[in-house]
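step=encode ok
step=design start
structure_in=
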């Protein structure tokens, strides 16, 4: 429902006002970019309605109090510099877990209904977590670490990310992060971040962003960097950004 192809599907009647949506600093502030971001928020709203319908079905079937619900995305927004890139804008996704009252003992000790956690969690952690909830001890060869349930273990110290083949283009980026820092290593720094990917260039934001770069009309280094060769390494301190602002990115 929020797939990249849905963000640019036209015609579209915007529910979120493009003039009021937040534009991340790495994107140029143009009507095309604002329309794409507003449409993305529209699609997220539709997805939330669908999730609510599924929860209502669980309630109607008498299963709400016996079902642990995991709700998460698979990558960042389907916008250029988000999906396909090992930055926060591509790797940090929402994860909501609903543990019903009869199974509240499976939740972490510090968990509170409606609360948030800064614990580092990766997709690889889902398999051992779900096995534990089902009463199955995760095998030792599993890379992930259960983050709730009877076999939950301590927080993960590091999360790893990568970028490799992206449709018809290749890159080689590796990342590692903890609670404070994220480090990226570029093994192909001669290749720009924004290599031409035909599918990505169907998005209006991509086209106008590249056009403004080629015309020398981008207004900041953060906007120009996507279309330039990469440094061999990047290191960022999360204390320099708002931890609750997903648009600030790095």
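sequence_out=
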């Amino acid at each position: 429902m929020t797939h990249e192809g849905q963000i640019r599907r036209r015609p579209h009647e915007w529910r979120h006002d493009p003039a009021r949506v937040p534009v991340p600093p790495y994107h140029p502030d143009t009507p095309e970019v604002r329309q794409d971001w507003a449409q993305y928020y529209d699609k997220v709203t539709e997805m939330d309605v669908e999730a609510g319908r599924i929860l209502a079905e669980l309630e109607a079937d008498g299963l709400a109090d016996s079902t642990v619900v995991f709700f998460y995305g698979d990558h960042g927004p389907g916008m250029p510099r988000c999906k396909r890139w090992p930055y926060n804008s591509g790797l940090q996704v929402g994860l909501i877990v609903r543990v019903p009252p009869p199974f509240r003992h499976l939740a972490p000790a510090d968990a509170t209904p409606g609360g948030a956690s800064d614990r580092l969690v990766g997709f690889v952690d889902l398999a051992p977590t779900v096995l534990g909830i089902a009463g199955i001890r995760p095998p030792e060869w599993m890379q992930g670490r259960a983050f709730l349930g009877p076999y939950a273990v301590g927080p993960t110290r590091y999360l790893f990310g990568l970028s490799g083949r992206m449709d018809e283009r290749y890159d080689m980026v590796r990342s590692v992060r903890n609670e404070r820092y994220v480090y990226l290593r570029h093994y192909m720094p001669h290749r720009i971040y924004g290599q031409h990917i035909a599918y990505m260039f169907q998005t209006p934001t991509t086209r106008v962003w590249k056009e403004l770069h080629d015309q020398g009309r981008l207004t900041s280094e953060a906007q120009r960097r996507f279309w330039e060769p990469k440094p061999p390494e990047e290191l960022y301190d999360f204390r320099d950004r708002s931890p609750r602002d997903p648009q600030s990115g790095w």
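step=design ok
step=annotate ok -> The mean pLDDT is 93.
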